[in-house]
Amino acid sequence: MPRITGIPTRDAGIVLRVLYWFSRKRFGAVMEPITVTAHHAKILRASLRHEVAVGRAAKKLPVSVRELAQYRVAQQVQCSWCVDFGTMLQRHEGLDIERLRKIDDYATAPEYTRPERLALAYADAMTSTPTTATDEQVAELVAEFGKDGVIELSYMIALENARGRFNSSLGIADQGFTSGDACKIPVPADAEVTRERA
Questions:
Q1: 102-121 mean pLDDT
Q2: Distance (Å, rounded) from C-alpha 60 to C-alpha 141?
């Protein structure tokens, strides 16, 4: 249970109800961070506009690199909601989510490519406090992904830190996007979603 209870559908205004409907339709459940953030309508609107804009802009990196780096941050800051949701997103991208079991061994595990290892190490360096990223590390990333790719990677890692710390601080925990216990997120040929969160 979050430390600040989200606004339930019955108490939501028309705009918020539409947002909840869209979240259910797209992800199979009303995303709890939205229900909590809804207590501050202007922050919610700003956050959603930002997320949509970033989603449209972040197209330089391979999907696996971007998703793995964000997943690693979520794991490192212990945001169970982000880990749960990020796993579901990777599954929908057709990525191998079984290899996430070996993410702590990414430096040597054969399931990870060199570009993915570089991004994961950078996610660790950016997420540590204080950050430990080095000139050599950034130069190696530029050689692999280009300057625009490193800017995108840095931004996505920083953004996931913000998301994860927000959710963890407010006690927003996983909703079962990947477990099947809470809600089954449809992918092509899957059954209809049967659970609503809010």
A1: 97
A2: 13
